[in-house]
């Protein structure tokens, strides 16, 4: 059975105990920007309930044009104001560098990506870089930002000083 | 108390029952691309365990350069092969259009975004558009894609025919 078939089957169980509908605007007026890492179940990690917060995730949890697009819609259309960043230890983006990733993709596919992979070495510095990029954006209504690092070995979240 | 302070406090409870570490490569070799909507707790909705799948989320769950960057890293560096798309009913991106969002942001901030908001009207068509964009990308190793729509009123996931 393909993974998607197992997920569709698991969803039937979820729907049986579905807690009911919620408004489209996040109740806690917060957007979380986090890494796509498979070990971070954000609802549990942050104590979120269904309907509480937007969840934006990409490789690294970095700030890109797409992150800004999502946060702009989150704030202007759906009323969020706080931004919580979740980076983490043992990130896949610390295991290569931008040129190394481009080489790997070019060797496997024959096509070299024109975009940067956004690899990094120091996770705290990467959180501060995200805060800097958010503060530079002219499109956001609110820059009430908390940067954190999640430890995938302990489950603990640590705030990063800006 | 700010929302982030409540989340840091909730995390202390999470860490007390932390289930233990997992490898960085997703165990089920799957990447999920979903909307940032606050009503979709993907781990529960899809029956995912910690360590199972990458989770990429943005406004609409659409395919952008950043989505391709994340999926490229997911496949080339961390070994995923299936892609599961999760769009949903009652999406914030169905409540405006690209020009309307640009007008709203310009009126509030004095700056008109140069990027498209990626609004849509027909959710099934938007899932098919995502599948088309993924199939066009030269950087991915695998295009084993399942597109779905999540009903935020019932908790049910429905597969969309490509």
Automatic annotation (TrEMBL), chains A, B:
Keyword Magnesium: no
Gene3D superfamilies, per the entry: Carbonic anhydrase
The protein's name in its UniProt record: carbonic anhydrase
Cofactor: Zn(2+)
Family designation: Belongs to the beta-class carbonic anhydrase family.
Keywords (A to Z) from UniProt: Metal-binding, Zinc
Database matches in InterPro entries: Carbonic_anhydrase (IPR001765), Carbonic_anhydrase_sf (IPR036874)
Provenance organism: Trujillonella endophytica
